[in-house]
Amino acid sequence: MVPSLHPFARLLTHTRQYQTQVWQASACSVLNKIFDLAPPVLIGIAVDIVVEQQDSILARWGLVSARQQLLALALVSFLIWSLESLFEYAYDRLWRNLAQQIQHDLRLDAYSHLQEMELAYFEDRSSGVLLSILNDDINQLERFLDQGANEILQVTTTVIVIGAIFFFLAPTVTIWAMLPMPFILWGSIIFQRRLAPRYAQVREKAGLLNERLANNLAGMQTIKSFTAEEYELERLRLDSLAYRQSNRGAIALSAAYIPLIRFVILFGFTGTLILGGFAAIAGRLDVGAYSVMVFLIQRLLWPLTRLGETLDQYQRAMASSQRVMNLLNAEIRIHPGHRVLVPQDVKGELRFEQVSFAYGGRDTILHSIDLYVPASQTIAIVGATGSGKSTLAKLLLRFYEIHGGRILLDGIEIHELRLKDLRAAIGLVSQDVFLFHGTVYDNIAYGTFEATLAEVITAAKMAEADEFIRQLPQGYDTVVGERGQKLSGGQRQRLAIARAILKDPPILVLDEATSAVDNETEAAIQRSLAQITQHRTTIAIAHRLSTIRHADRIYVMDAGRFVEQGTHEELIELAGIYSHLWDVQTGHLPATLLP
After folding, report:
1. CB contact at 8 A, 374 and 400
2. The CATH number of 341-425+536-587 is which of 3.20.20.70, 3.40.50.1820, 1.10.260.40, 3.40.50.300?
3. Averaged pLDDT, 251-272
4. Could you tell me which residue ranges the ABC transmembrane type-1 domain spans (predicted)?
């Protein structure tokens, strides 16, 4: 897909699978408009029957009596009105269903594409802007496909059909009737070009407004605790005002379209009325034909005033389409891998060889890291905040791609492994616990969706969570709220541990897994971790040294490098950074003396 293509062309390219439905809906729209234009012709024939009687058009087809002609005309009218209604029902249903289907598929495609993006993509964009694309912009496309596409087809059909009838009846009058058309089309193009940048700005302001709302709703506790309600209301007012002002510019231009077009239409209508009337008086045009032209010129020109609304929808849709297509065209930088990995066959041997990494636009955070983790052993990584500990876990899970070196699992470079298989083999318990709005059961079973209640309870018991869960109002059926806001930090962390236990991965990564629990709960969790880390490769990242003192090997990080390693006892004897940290945390050394 070529990003330089017009947004509509890019949208059509993305929706080729709907060609059959598009043709069906288009055919129904065209047929409906053809039958919709028939009544003025029928009125003209009726006038011709009354005036000409035995010399009317129908009389030439063998219907001599005027009564017979009128009865036949009534029968044809009934048939035409029935077909018009039938095709209106058909096109309305087809276009609306098509709009819903495209909306549905586009939203899923866009969201699926987002899920494939690396974490750096989300760090550079706000969730509010992305939500605006997934909801508002895709809904805007649905509204255009629901009404605008049909409107364009029907206006085009009207021009072709009525133009053909006029040329057949009175070519001279047709020139005056059609005279406004080039000016209307030219005016439409001018309006379209001027509206396009205005609606692009509208969509941008809408995204910023959504960003503000999403951030404020997520940070409501902080807003309240700092009594910043008035401050945030004012910031929202300014963003909403900017959105209103950008819309006002677009509205001022689009609202001028219809009044200007009406004046242009007036020339075509009066030209048909006067010139056609002169021709009928002079006998060069049948009265019935003149009646048809007077009725049809309104059916031709007045619907063109709706082009303003249609163009308005079109430009909004194109601005939205541009944003949606840009999202879909965003490059996926994490290669999915191709080698199949069966979690049950994973031994869990890990190697980091000369691994270097830097977050986008920032200094290198990991410098040629070498790390060997034997299968089924527990290693711990400690160090100051910002030393790069958690980054190692993110690189292992391929949330980011390394910039140098390589990472191997059981002797295979992890970028060769299928991404889904790699992550299925690793259980992560992060210090930033995320719980979904749902029940306790749903959150523990997340990722292991086929788990039974008994298995969930067993995992909760191992994570020292079963006791507090049973004290909740509905036990395992208690809804935890968005991001688990109804639970304490320690409770959320224990649910996260239970979720990892239930997954039963061959590799377990604990990133500050006990940072939000009290000493008693930490001791309980340590007992359970001692069980679940047996026969399982475990990487424990921690600030609390008491949680990792029994690890098979401990690595101390400083400024993106390993500066010490050994067992707890060996590092204490070394009297280095680890020893100082241990003395501070056990109360043997004031923190001010820490180097």
Report:
1. no
2. 3.40.50.300
3. 72
4. 23-316
